From TrEMBL, chain A:
The gene is paaJ. Residues 117-161 form the PaaD zinc beta ribbon domain. NCBIfam families: PA_CoA_Oxy4 (TIGR02159). This is Phenylacetate-CoA oxygenase subunit PaaJ. The lineage of its organism: Bacteria, Bacillati, Actinomycetota, Actinomycetes, Propionibacteriales. Residues 9-74 form the MIP18 family-like domain.
UniProtKB/TrEMBL annotation, chain B:
It comes from the Bacteria. Gene3D superfamilies: 1.20.1260.10. GO terms for molecular function: phenylacetyl-CoA 1,2-epoxidase activity. Keywords: Oxidoreductase. The gene is paaC. Signal peptide: none annotated. The keyword Transmembrane helix does not apply. The keyword Nucleotide-binding does not apply. Its EC number is 1.14.13.149. The lineage of its organism: Bacteria, Bacillati, Actinomycetota, Actinomycetes, Propionibacteriales. This is Phenylacetate-CoA oxygenase subunit PaaC. InterPro entries: Aromatic_CoA_ox/epox, Ferritin-like, Ferritin-like_SF, PaaA_PaaC, PaaC.
Length: 163, 312
């Protein structure tokens, strides 16, 4: 059980390779149900996230390589994934890779108020830690990141959007 | 997953394709998790009629499928790179919602799934997406129209997402675990779709004379299909009565309240165009669609229909 979990926790996210699936909060459960049979539960980040298939394949490959012949990857929809599940280690790894980690996710209970102004976030530059940053685009290198620019050191950088 | 392409032994060594289909062969035209609902409680709640639940899930799934396809047609065609990615992302979210909802429909009542040749690897949600005729789809007609200019895309995404978000906010309380989970995830995505399109709506309305003219023209053209979103079909009424669905009529006030905020901010008056009539009273929810849907499906489905056994 412990070994299966260790192996599964090492698998990294295909789009954010500095993060393991455990850091990302996508890995929900690892269960050994037989001699060499493992069941892994993961939660999709976005409904149509194309990285999910790659995550599934990576988990199967790594666990099979570690001697677990039968690997079952199940998708757990409820509760929905939120960036709040990214661990402190994961946030540190993002920042170290030059990506600003997400702030607290907005509440999604009750009616969701309309926001007509561009999303206002307090994002610090991952290079020089300056709070003087500006949004360039709501989409960065992947759809789950926004692109920012630091007005102090002038470096552009990605920010993982709160969801 | 069981059937694999047989490669004659003598060719095996020379064929670059040998071995490719050993462990991860899957249906060639869809996505590749075996079961998108694995690990989710798909028990049908007490007192709920399974065919009603399936028909209701198909309606919501078809709305997302058809809207996703139309929005995806903007990929590589949007005015700039950011909006290209934004629209592609919206299409992707809707496709993900559609997949779960069609899978839910199939799980609730297998008889809704078209029969495919014996041994076809197509999972049920792909059979529903690729092997139904236009008259079997239950999407609202707003989703299926041929794309216009960027202003038209903005107005269509706005109307669609304002309505769908208001619906999903209530669907989070569905007695069906799958619908509740899809809705809980979907509200986060739809809130983004709505706010993205609402900002562009205001921007175009307050931009140049030309951008405002185009925006108003798009609104005028799409407005006749807005009331259809709030019609209550018998399936929706039954699904709402048993606590698994949402009666569209009951979200009208909330949706119009949000839309009015956008119109006010954009200084755009509410259009007066009258609703588009159905055909003998039948609309999208009854399977009555315009010709554009048939053309869209022809393009979307033709390759899969030609190769129902396809694997890669």
């Amino acid at each position: 059980m412990h070994r299966a979990r260790t192996v599964a926790e090492r698998v990294t996210d295909p789009e954010l390779p500095m993060l393991t699936l455990a850091d990302l909060g996508v890995l929900r459960d690892v269960d050994v149900v037989g001699d060499s049979h493992v069941v892994v539960d993961i939660t999709p980040t976005y409904s149509g996230c194309p990285a999910m298939a790659a995550m599934r394949d990576d988990l199967v490959r790594e666990l099979q390589g570690a001697g677990f012949d039968r690997v079952e990857v199940r998708v757990s929809l409820d509760p929905a994934w939120t960036t709040d599940w990214i661990t402190p280690e994961g946030r540190a790894a993002l920042a170290a890779a030059g990506i600003a980690p997400p702030g607290p996710a907005p509440s999604t209970s009750g009616p969701i108020p309309l926001t007509l102004l561009p999303t206002a976030r307090q994002v610090r530059c991952p290079q020089c830690d300056s709070p003087a940053t500006e949004l360039v685009s709501e989409f960065g290198s992947t759809a789950c990141k926004a692109q920012y620019r630091c007005t102090s050191c002038l470096e552009p950088f990605d920010h993982v959007k709160e969801i | 997953m069981d059937s694999q392409i047989d490669i004659p032994a003598e060719d095996e060594h020379d064929s670059a394709y040998a071995g490719l289909l050993v462990n991860d062969a899957h249906w060639a035209f869809g996505t590749d998790f075996e079961d998108p609902l694995a690990g989710v409680d798909t028990t049908i709640p007490d007192g709920v009629d399974a065919p009603t639940l399936a028909a209701y899930a198909l309606m919501l799934g078809d709305d997302a499928l058809v809207m996703s396809h139309r929005v995806s047609e903007w990929t590589s065609n949007a005015p700039d790179l950011e909006d290209d990615i934004a629209l592609s992302n919206i299409a992707l979210d809707l496709l993900g919602q559609s997949r779960l909802l069609l899978a839910r429909a199939a799980k609730a009542d297998g008889s809704v799934v078209p029969a495919l040749p014996e041994g076809s690897p197509a999972p049920p949600e792909d059979a529903l997406a690729f092997f139904r005729e236009a008259h079997q789809l239950r999407n609202v007609r707003l989703a299926e129209l041929v794309n216009g200019d960027f202003a038209e895309a903005v107005v269509r995404v706005l109307l669609f997402s304002v309505w769908r978000l208001a619906t999903f906010e209530r669907l989070r309380d569905s007695r069906d675990h799958v619908l509740a989970a899809v809705a809980a995830k979907g509200v986060k995505e739809l809130a983004y779709h709505r706010d993205y399109s609402a900002r562009w709506f205001v921007t175009l309305a307050q931009g140049t004379d030309e951008s405002r003219r185009r925006l108003l023209a798009a609104l005028e053209e799409l407005w006749p299909l807005w009331p259809e979103l709030f019609d209550t079909h018998a399936v929706e009424a039954a699904a709402a009565a048993s606590g698994v669905g949402v009666d569209p009529a009951e979200v009208r006030a909330a949706a119009e309240g949000v839309l009015d905020q956008v119109l006010d901010a954009a200084d755009v008056p509410r259009p007066e165009a009258r609703r588009r009539a159905g055909v003998l009273g039948r609309t999208g929810r009854d399977g009555m669609h315009g010709e554009p849907l048939s053309r869209m499906l022809a393009e979307m489905q033709s390759v899969a229909r030609a190769h129902p056994m396809g694997q890669w």
